[in-house]
Amino acid sequence: MSTVQPDLETVVGQQVEAVLDRLRPGPLAEEMADLLMASIPELGRASDEDFRAGLLLSCESNVSAIWNGMLTGAPIDSIAPPPDAVAWAHELVHRGVQLPALLRAYRLGHGLAERRLEEAATGLEIEPEIRWRVLARMSHHLFAYIDAVCTELVDDYEQERAQWIRGAAAARAELVTAIVERQPVDARVASEKLRYDVSRRHLALIAWGEPSRAGQRAGSLESEAIALAAALGGGPVLTVPIGERVVWAWTSGDHVIDDPTVITQMLGEGVRAAIGTCREGLAGMADSHDESRVARRVAELRALRPGAVVGYRAADLTALLTADPVEAVRFTEAELGELIADTDVAARLRATIRVYLEENLSPARAARRLGVHQNTVVYRVKRTEEQLGHPIEERRLRLEVALQLSSMIGGLRAAADGRRRARG
After folding, report:
1. I want to staple 235 with a disulfide (CB 3.0 to 4.6 A). Which of 12, 175, 253, 362 is the partner?
2. What is the pLDDT confidence band of residue 422, given thresholds at 50, 70 and 90?
3. What are 10-16's contacts with CB under 8 Å, separation 24+?
4. Residue pair 248/176 in contact by the 8 Å Cβ criterion
5. Structure pTM?
6. Helix extents (H) in 302-395
7. How many whole angstroms separate alpha carbon 171 and alpha carbon 194?
8. Cβ atoms of residues 252 and 235 within 8 Å
9. What is the DSSP string of 172-223?
């Protein structure tokens, strides 16, 4: 820092902080991820949520690191890629995305951050003499960060790629991708290469870790998937890491079952899992995998706690109802009206009416289940009908569906926002 004009340097630092306060890393990272997916064809083709989640983590960790460096005045030689940025670079290697796409992502992200910083500075009342110094300081640090991180990531990418190519993991992942995409695959050759009999009866599993757990590696998730397969009565297990936070797996055998209620031990910390149904042969591997992905989507909509295992049989109806989250949100909000409000009163009414419907419109049975007086149930039913504008039984089926969807309205709204962004 300059010793000639300490007061000026202090004022510039204060204004940099003011600019950054107007531009939070989370929303900017969301915008950046959407821009990169839309602008870089190699990224846009990877349409699954795991890929975008890794990209979003990389964007947010980079933006947070840049903002922290601007605020603390960290020396340039201390800059290093955040762990989430390294993990995403490795995922590009594993998915066959070439290095130029990674570098273009950083160039586009750099440009977006520069524009948003300038806009945030324009929104503040800063004297012109101070404003250009603020922008110059932020621009200098941003350029230095991108230059340093890209230099390290290029080396890291090439090392990971060399290691990936040398190993059997790349060939195994490529073959499994062909199977789940239902490309023509010779069953005998596939069994030999995978060291797993693809002609048998299979159950597909997906195990995933929380995005915030940067230290969680695919190796630990593979162990969780293998333990889960054993708990379900499976024999041989095939595991395929997808990035560093997700593992696809299959298990086979005459005694394997697709009922997660038989599981007695908990999954590891921060781990969730989804399973399909038992299916036969190569086509069965793909079908069961599709079901496990559907079950996972429902688990995430419901925001199930870590350690949960959800099966397709318990998720299939919800999956059908939420296939289009935009329409699901629209239907739920229209059907429930004020009952969808995020208040304690509305939540009590929804819970009461849900039980009341399950007990076939019996206030006495509903009261016993809820542990309240029968008159309380009658009162809440009346309040609900006043808010709905019609008797409960008049639109019973629609109301039951809307109440089921209301329990996951937060996840549905987030999914709907993502669908709208994807549609442009």
Report:
1. 253
2. low
3. 11/130, 12/130, 12/133, 12/134, 12/137, 13/73, 15/121, 15/124, 15/126, 15/130, 15/131, 15/134, 16/70, 16/71, 16/134, 16/137, 16/138
4. yes
5. 0.65
6. 312-321, 325-336, 344-358, 363-370, 374-388
7. 9
8. yes
9. HHHHHHHHHTT----HHHHHHHHTS-TTSEEEEEEEEE-TT-TT--HHHHHH
